[in-house]
Amino acid sequence: MGAALGIDLTLAADLLSQGKLVAIPTETVYGLAANGLNPDAVAGIFSAKNRPTFDPLILHVGSIEQAKSLCSDWPSAADTLAKTFWPGPLTLVLPKADLVPPLVTADNPTVAVRMPNNAMTLALLSKIPFPLAAPSANPFGYVSPTNAQHVADQLGERIDYILDGGRCAIGIESTIVSVTMDNTVTVLRLGGLDLESITEALGKPVNEVLSMHSSPQAPGQLDQHYSPGSTMIAWSPENTDIHNAPWALQTTEKIGMMWFSQQRAQQWLSAQNVEAVENTPGVKHYYLSGDGSDKEAAMNLFGTLRQFDKDGCTRVYFEWASESGLGRAINDRLTRASAKGTH
Ligand code: TXA
Ligand code: MG
Prior knowledge:
The protein is α/β, with parallel strands linked by helices. Helix content is 32%, strand content 19%. The structure holds threonylcarbamoyladenylate and magnesium ion.
């Protein structure tokens, strides 16, 4: 019997107060939460996820005041960002206060804090006196969950309860920035808040430290993070005709086609005098968006990758997003998902 799915906030608050593990909905992805000030509870997160303890956790808070209590400094740039974007898909990395257990921060002198924009989880946070440590609720290295059933499928046996908040509205993890005492803002992970918005709020450009190497300061930057079971291969229909489409060339394996925009795919197909491809035998076609919206594509990305695994596709061909807005975060996840097997 796996953990129950439900919407009982009192039960969730009681379990968390007892040091147990509860999956929580956020606007980005589902989190695997525990009392962030209780080291035993936090240790439970690492073991349920098989997560190495060098990979620090984000503390989720219900207010800016609570975030401040977890940090030893609160520079003005952090205040601007929190007031502009919280609750929302932005995580701030700041000097930690002494009360934060070293296990949460993997012994780093900094702590990551975020106020998530989900009514159920904000209501839960208002019922408990502690912040919630919560990584994405997936086994280490796999694609993040964007609905409650994704969590139940993989971690249901290892946790105590799953708060079911429906589908995540953004679908890609938060953007992480560090803020130093001199108000230098550095992006550590691309995510659900686009950099254009951050730059506008600060009135100055931000630094970017987006390493693709495997011994990073932010382990979310490990190359093979977000790996689905299939081999992911970039493909573009541009300057290609239908006889050279992946499904025409690959006959031995079950092929997945992840189109960025249904509209663009259809335009290309009709230029090839093909009406529809959905029924090609041995091939699964999915569209991340109707008309190429990067927001819609981000929301559908992880669920679609899981669906290809369920469908038994061993090779999945995908199109890159354009390098702006959420397209940058989408391309970051696609780069990591397709890095599999190269290291
Ligand atoms: O949207 C999100 O951020 C989701 C939801 C549940 O809030 N959480 C999430 O957590 O993506 P996780 O653990 O999968 O990724 C958090 C990343 C990790 O890669 C970790 O390295 C980085 O945050 N991180 C945490 N604390 C840090 C710190 N003190 N310095 C640098 N990076 C840190
Ligand atoms: Mg994660």
